[in-house]
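Our collaborator T.R. sent over the components below with a one-line note: 'Predict the complex.' Nothing else. No constraints on interfaces, no templates requested, no preferences about which chain binds where. So this is a plain run: every listed entity goes in together, and whatever single assembly comes back becomes the starting point for the next discussion.
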Amino acid sequence: MKFDLLSIGKAFLANFGLARIIILAFFIFLCIMAVVFQLDVAELLTSSLVRIGMWGVLVLAMLPAIRSGIGPNFGVSLGILCGLIGALTALEMAFRLRETVQFSGGVLFLLAILISIPFAVITGVFYGWLLNRVKGSEMMIATYVGFSMVSIMKIAWLFLPYTSPEMAWPIGRGVRVQISLAGRGITRLLNNFLSFNIGDVVVPTGLLLFFALMCFLVWLFMRSKTGVAMHAAGDNPRFSEAAGINVNRSRMIGTTLSTVLGAIGILVYAQSYGFVQLYEGPMFMPFVAVAAVLIGGASVKKATITHVVIGTALFLGIQVVAIPVANAFTTEWASMGEISRKIIQNGVILYALTQAGGE
Amino acid sequence: MLTPNSIPEEKVKLSNKQIIIKFLTNNMVTIMFIVLGLAGFFIAGMNPFLFLFDIVARMSRNSFLVLSLIIPVVAGMGLNFSIVLGAMAGQALLIFVTHWGITGLPGILLCIVLVTPLSMFLGYLTGKLFNKAKGQEMIAGLILAFFAQGIYELIFLQLVGGIIPMENRVLIMGQGIGVRTTVDLTDGLKYGLDWPGLSWGMPNLLRPTLPWTIIVGVIVLLVGYLAYILFFKGKRASMPKLISAAAVGGFLVYWSVNQIQTASMINMVRIPLLTWFVILALCLFIVFFSKTKLGQDMRSVGQDRHVAAVSGIQVDRVRVIAIMMSMVMASWGHIIFLQNMGAFSTYGSHEQIGLYSVAALLIGGATVTKATIGQALLGVFLFHTLFIVSPSAGRQLFGDAQVGEYFRVFVAYGVIGATLAMHAWRKLLQRKGELGV
Amino acid sequence: MGEPYLLQMKNIGKSYYGTQVLQDINLSLKPGEIHAIVGENGAGKSTLMNILFGMEVIHSTGGYEGEIHVNGKKEEIDSPQKAMEMGIGMVHQEFMLLPNFTITENIKLNRENLKPSFLSRVFGEKTKRLDFPTMNADARKALNKLDIDIEEYVMVAGLPVGYMQLTEIAREIDKTNVKVIVFDEPTAVLAESEAERLLEAMKIIAEEGIAILFITHRLDEVIAISDNITVLRDGKLVATKKAEETDASQLAELMVGRKIEKMVHGEERDFKNEIALKTQNLVVHMPGEKVKGVDLEIKKGEFFGIGGLAGQGKVGVANGIMGLYPGTGQVWINGKPLGLNSPSKSMARGLAYVSEDRRGVGLLLDSSVELNIVITSLQNQDKFLKNYGLLRLMDNKGIHQHALKMIKELDIRCTGPTQLVKRLSGGNQQKVCIARALTMQPDILFVSEPTRGIDVGAKRLVLETLVRLNDELGMTIIMTSSELGELRSVCDRIAIVSEGAIAGILRPGDPDADYGLLMGGKRKRRGA
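Returned assembly:
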């Protein structure tokens, strides 16, 4: 009997992975500590829910990328940039047309999504085309394409003709580093939609519903002919060629979808955060999303919607709980939250890389 | 007799035009950056004296780091983004030695001695990790650097002063825990290597001016060459080479003498001779090393792991050694870098080391599979030329220095991205070629 | 006879996980002897060589039986390093060369001559410097022995294959202690003139007193060059002959001869003259299995076999027609031309394929049985899709039902349609592949190596299934297999592919010698 337990334990370890067990244990430890230190559990839960909803779509953007075989999309910052362009353009339109129409927050949000999607599709197709040419090194190249585009957009933000006063610096050139969405009816638009309280916990219904809707749409897509082809192309490209599937096209679709989700994801993020962050802002966001989906149980070759949901909850949950717990422990450990994020985030990516095996 | 009649004649005569085109395509990146650098230089309206002053300093502090990237490339592990770990180790030692109050050259030497085992250990772990992620070494190195940043912050922000006792008003933050965000090396390790005589009141010891360095350098080369011919019976170089070398040497000496006589500003540019000797020693070591058994093993492993393994080379071990060597060099390189800077941001100054060193190497014309000393040094020169000129060029062109600063960061990322993409594409085409497509 | 043996292998046997793959092999080699080992694929040649070479696969699976004697002394060869120490060298089928090294560097790979350096006193052997003059001189000596007029400082990249191979051989003879060199199918990659040079080189080496073990399938080469010949079949030693006492057709018979289990179709069947598939000058660029011009005519309802040795191109035929590897030439399906290089076009014309590479090309290992069964049909025939308003999504119910039907029909042992394919046994995985092909409802079914890597019972079931499909549905089946016995037990006609072309077409009942000769590279004379 003891022997059996041991083998079950081993199988569990092999399936679930040591790194994930450590992270899960850490999360449970943090939660226990939060209770021990008598922290405001309701507030922690509330902000956890908000963070999950904020990041959910961005993490979901990893799914089509992994499924189509390009691996975790380290270059989802391209999608994020498209989303930012959408947001800024929508705000600018509202400003320029202020004499004729007044956009409500909801319209503005939809407008931003609609504007960003064509950008994201075009970017995604080019990006997919590039990734098809660098098979085997997608992760590294995606990372540097992302970095390059973020840094070239830093120059672009200086020159793009946005004139709306909340965006442009009053003197000097370019748009601000951080643009406030206050007074547009867009801040926490989704969060507040149908929001209700359970005890002291505020449930951001709209935000979570939107995330669920996106998951559902992706799930539907994965069940379509194109989605099945994409899944096969990612799982086994040689099989797919033999089954008459255009592997490169499937990868391109996966990349494009990931880019579009990245664009929508940042808009969801921004409306909840209340600010649009430009310049350095999108630089390291992809790593958070990659780490989240990996923590959820995905590998660089396999991912499901369950992985996305679990990973987002776990990783973002840790981030929310870690800081107050560390502060409660000792004020000297103020930086522990950020440090633990760095270690967990990059540790889990490293772990996934070593599990992927060689070339 | 078997004659190689069916060997395709590789050296089919190319027309001059073809030779030029081939040269241009093979050196596209480098040529582009020469053009960019020159254009920037003129647009910015750089003062040549200031430029020279700056580039000498930048080359002497960055070259060693960039050279540390060469060995992993030879061993087929690509661009070693994990040198950031070596930089962290070097920085850690600088903090401790500063705390102990050992200054100047002895302090630097102590750093070097102590950092070596530490960075060897880090290199060993990194090498092991890379062996588990073969083919993804570069992304693993990049992420490892981020991961190590977390550990580094944990140690220096949270543990030092607390669990790791360190009492130092200057270094430690007010509440007694964590190293301050900037560490000033002034009156300590600053210029420990560049100005070895500083703490003994001889600031110009081993710091000759540029013209004098050139004059002495030319004379040493000349004497060395003659000794090589006369006493070691070395081969004589061809006549055209000799003439052009003589012409260049003659011109340099003439120019230098002229500068000394006119007492121009150029005489203010001083060469950190000891640092340059260290860099030269590393270059010589790399050349020597490539001709040793271990160096040959690395070249074999770099070309084809499978073939190397079948012929009995311990592939994984060779790869670990390559990373260990690179890591040790990087830690030394970062100490050289920081003693010249004189102050550093405790939690930031190592972060960009990987990025800028790799970018410099690639700009010099290196690729993922091939890197030479010449490329490394040329790359440092070109990349830092761009660094110096781009803010002022940005201001001249767009009325905004920020543009230039953003541009140079973009260049660093862009050149890495483009080089990696080109390499991956070529590899894919090659694989397709093998399939007979 | 007084001369002592250089190498003796006595009563060598080997089993993998209870399956005996090699039994009672005896082999003796004298200095300067050229000894050929011939046999079909799977006869045990490579296992024998792996044992001699102390390869990891042998020792990680429980070692071998019997004894190996070198120079009359019993030796335990447990690693390639040990084999090398004993003076056993090997010229690999695939080149072990580094293209960006010179010939010298390749010859001396990991055996470089060294001289001390200032570091080597402290850091030891590894920091010694390479002694290039000595290395070059040694390389020159080895090249001269082989009578090769090529500079030792030339880069290997860009050399013709023949020279690459000679470089490999030079590496072996440069090893000072080398006594035995194994040549594993050395002429397989060479053009005819190059192959002749190689045989010359082998003779030169033998004259030096080095013994040669020569593994090949070209029987005429064997007769021409060897002193002695050992024939293996099914892991057993069938005969050891002196070259002058035998000829190619006797060897062929020895190589192939085996009882054929059962003729499924009893009598030769007659087919109407409807041609289901015709090819003309079909060329397929499949690495390792190149097809260099195949002409075939296969009749409707026929069970057609394609046989031949590994690497000769038999597998390439089906892969080319299905569009998996780039090909040229003409193919007609039911009299109408087929465009090559597109799997979907081939499938649209009623072809279906069960790949020889089951795990690589044949399956989505991480997906369910049902998805594996329907996916080709779903992608190419738009079946198993259902309209939900604007969306067309997978028809779960239909897929499930179809999978259940297939599982029942083909007797696929699994916990249910949703089980992951990677958890199934080899035989059941093969059935899933067949189920997928059948879901396409093809007119012509290509099956490659259907019984590779599956156990005996499952083999039978798979073959019976194919025969049933052929009998009951009248499906034209083209089966490619390395196992002649299997082909002869189920096929109406069997084409033997050799060097990328059809060497001849035989009936299952034709004599063993005919099969052996065709496989050994001798073309069937016209009209025979």
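Summary for T.R.: The interface with chain B takes residues 80-81, 84, 92, 96-101, 105, 109-112, 114, 117, 119-120, 125-130, 146-150, 158-160, 162-163, 166, 197, 285-287, 290, 325-326 of chain C (CB under 8 Å).
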